[in-house]
Amino acid sequence: MRTVQLTLSGLVQGVTMRLTVQIYARQHGIVGWVKNMRNGTVAIMAQASAAEITQFIEWLRYEIPVGRDISVQVSETVAPQTFDGFKIL
């Protein structure tokens, strides 16, 4: 199991980013959450197999159909909990 904290910057708010991320995560068995931050970024905590997380990050960087000029910062983390599903906060 791999857990990552992701920060998306660029045009990422007001473009259905959180819903799009939630749909992808649920379809691929990723648990965690996504939320808009006050500084205009989107924060994601994601937990799944290492292969699934790698594919998720690649999707965010190169294939996500919403947003523009997206930068993805990845930080490995130890999850303080086990997540139940994937939620929009």
Rg, rounded, reads: 12 Å
Mind summarizing the main beta sheet?
5 strands, mixed
- Share of β-strand residues: 35-45%
Number of strands: 5
The parts where pLDDT drops under 50 for at least 5 residues are none
Fraction of residues in H or I helices? 25-40%
What structural class do you assign from the helix and strand content?
alpha+beta
Question: What is the 3D shape?
Answer: globular
**Overall pLDDT:** 92
Distance from N terminus to C terminus (CA atoms, Å) equals: 22 Å
Spell out the helices and strands N to C: EHEEHEE
- Strand order within the widest beta sheet: 4-1-3-2-5
Count of helical stretches: 2
Walk me through the structure.
A hairpin with a 5-residue loop joins strand 2 and strand 3. The two termini are 22 Å apart. The model has no long low-confidence stretch (mean pLDDT 92). The chain is globular. It is of the alpha+beta class. The chain is built from 2 helices and 5 strands; from the N terminus they run E-H-E-E-H-E-E. The chain has a 5-stranded mixed sheet.
